[in-house]
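Hey,
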Amino acid sequence: MVRCFADDGTFTRAGTTYAGHDVLRPFYGSMMERYVTTLHIPNSHVIDVDTDAGTATGLLTGQAELALATDC
């Protein structure tokens, strides 16, 4: 998952921003351990590509259905 981000890429969840591969890797690892099933539904997205600078920024809104991992 981390390879989807630039070296200095960021992801913001619930008001907290995670930046860079060294921070994103453990964040996503903990999310993969926490949930056994996830279903994500994107509702809308906007992407601004700056071809001169070679960068892109975006905003995605959506919803998710999550099943927590438990020790049943």
